[in-house]
Amino acid sequence: MIWEIVQVGDPVLRKKCEPVTRFDGQLHALLDDMKETLIHAEGAGLAAPQVGVPIRAVVVNVEEGYFELINPIFVWQKGEQRGAEGCLSVRGKVGTVCRPSKVKVIFQDRKGDKYSLVARDFFARAICHELDHLDGVLYTDKAANVRDAED
Ligand code: CO
User: Fold this and answer.
1) CA distance 122 to 63
2) pTM of the entire structure?
3) Residue 139 C-alpha to ligand 1 middle, in angstroms?
4) Where is 117: in which H helix or E strand?
5) Distance in angstroms (rounded) separating the CA atoms of residues 110 and 70
6) Distance (Å, rounded) from C-alpha 110 to C-alpha 112?
7) Is residue 99 part of a domain?
8) CATH number of domain containing 123
9) Does 18 qualify as catalytic in the annotation?
10) 60 CA to centre of ligand 1 in angstroms
11) Is residue 5 part of a domain?
């Protein structure tokens, strides 16, 4: 099911999200809906609070593949990259954001099993952006110059 994506101004986007403790059918249904919603919106990532659910779950869809990250935590962040970023919750805007160029995260999958991954470049940017959502942070808080996107 495709969900409506919450837009900036909604307080759910500013919450510190709660850890996921139940890896059950309800979580799986939410993740399936987040995937469908992300693909429909043609985005690179979506965090649960963006569909109104303040829990620590994000999905990312990039060249490297499709990933579901539950309770993700940075192990380290290295380097620096500057680049354009947008957000499905801040429609029609883009801004330049400085992010690490390489990150390592530990996370759980939808069954609760633990994994880690290393991401570089745009993949790293997407992870940083989505993990910020779990702490109520939007890229516009960090962007140097938020402007209208030229579609
Ligand atoms: Co976003």
Assistant:
1) 9
2) 0.97
3) 7
4) strand 114-120
5) 7
6) 6
7) yes
8) 3.90.45.10
9) no
10) 11
11) no
41 located within any domain: yes
Instruction: Return the structure tokens found at 27.
Output: 């979580």
Following DSSP, what letter does each residue of 62-81 receive, concatenated?
ETTEEEEEEEEEEEEEES-E
Q: State pLDDT tens for residues 84-112.
A: 999 999 999 999 999 999 999 999 999 99
Mean pLDDT, to the nearest integer, of 128-138?
98
Domain count, the chain: 1
Give the span between the Cα atoms of 72 and 124, in whole angstroms: 13
Which residue segment(s) compose the domain that 23 sits in? 11-148
User: Could you read off the pLDDT of 46-68 as tens digits, one per residue?
Assistant: 999 999 999 999 999 999 999 99
- Residues with CB in 5 Å of ion ligand 1: 87
Instruction: Give the C-alpha separation, 47 to 151, whole Å.
Output: 23
Residue with token string 């309800």: 26
- Centroid of ligand 1 to alpha carbon of 83 (angstroms): 15
